[in-house]
Amino acid sequence: MAENTHDSNGNGWDEYKRLVLSEIRRIANFTQETRDKMDEHCRDTRDQVSKEYKELSTQISTIKADIRALQIKAGVWGLMGGAIPVGIALLVWVIERMS
Known about the structure:
The protein has one helix spanning 13-98. It is 87% helix and 0% strand. It is mostly helical.
């Protein structure tokens, strides 16, 4: 019994216990490293998505302004397109009245 002071029962449990604890620590370290990498990746992805969202939001605002301008131009052209036949009809009516 005095020969093996680390092993209380003489069955090698102390050595196996050190091996198990070492493996648990290794797995815990690996898990923490993996978690840190995932957190960093998530932060990078979130920042990239936020940047792209801002860019798209700016582009959408520009497109909306362009659409409003085109709607106004279309309205003006429609008014002018409608005014021409009315003007011709009035001119014909005036000429008929004068003759």
